[in-house]
Amino acid sequence: MKLIAPSILAADFANLNKSIKMVEEAGCDMLHIDVMDGRFVPNITIGPVVIESLRKVTGIPFDIHLMIVEPEKYIETFIEAGADMITVQAEACVHLDRIIQQIKSTGAKVGVALNPSTPEHMLEYVLDQLDMVLVMSVNPGFGGQEFINGSLRKITNLKAMIEQKSLNVKIQVDGGINQNNINKISQAGADIFVAGSAIFNSTKPTEAVKHLRAAAMSEEER
Fold first, then answer.
1. Domain 3-216 - what CATH class?
2. 37: annotated binding-site residue?
3. Is 63 annotated as catalytic?
């Protein structure tokens, strides 16, 4: 099953409640929330206080992507705020295994994200502990960027690693996803698709989600 995860980065920040209700009614599977600290990436977004407020108005699963340095200091705070899944950047974690165990101990699902230039084999010794790998198909920090085609090979290689080890690990892809490229990303091995502008900038978000999901499916799934 192919899952659609709208990125709140592309939402109307003056009307977040309305934006979330819109994608919830459109049948999206989870909400992708990017947390940026202005250090690991040049942008600054939202923190646990906002997430806690959003948690009160929706039951949609929160997929929290921590694009921050020293994420281990804030994991419990984001879990308390309402995170269902915590994804950390491999490049920001000196002791990646320890942080994975820290997240798992809270009962939340755990993901690890890889920047475009980070090779997939970096996860070889922790892959069996993950629920998800997030392939960044743009350089993180800002929405609206174009998909980096080199990401397709990384997705394919990750899928092969997962299948070779017979693991139940999902591959999520974030950055530049739209109706024109989602099928080839899906065919490469992706399971979860983070889409921002393609959904929130659409005049008909429900139709946009429906078309994205259909385009991601194989002929057998349709």
1. alpha beta
2. no
3. no
Is residue 174 annotated as a catalytic residue, yes or no?
Answer: yes
pLDDT tens for residues 160-204? 999 999 999 999 999 999 999 999 999 999 999 999 888 998 888
Of the candidates 23, 44, 27, 83, the one whose C-alpha atom is nearest the C-alpha of residue 213 is: 27
- In one-letter notation, the amino acid at residue 122 is M
What is the DSSP track for the chain?
--EEEEBGGGS-GGGHHHHHHHHHHTT-S-EEEEEEBSSSSS-B---HHHHHHHHTT--SPEEEEEESSSGGGTHHHHHHHT-SEEEEEGGG-TTHHHHHHHHHHTT-EEEEEE-TTS-GGGGTTTGGG-SEEEEESS-TT-SSPPP-TTHHHHHHHHHHHHHHTT---EEEEESS--TTTHHHHHHHT--EEEESHHHHT-SSHHHHHHHHHHHHS-TTT-
pLDDT per position as a tens digit, 7-51: 999 999 999 999 999 999 999 999 999 999 999 999 999 999 999
Q: Was 32 annotated as part of a binding site? A: yes
Residue 151 annotated as part of some ligand binding site: no
For 37, other C-beta atoms within 10 Å of its C-beta total 18
CA pair distance 222, 216, nearest whole angstrom: 10
**Which of the following is catalytic: 29, 34, 37, 191?**
34
Catalytic residue among 37, 63, 131, 174: 174
Q: Establish whether 82 is an annotated binding residue.
A: no
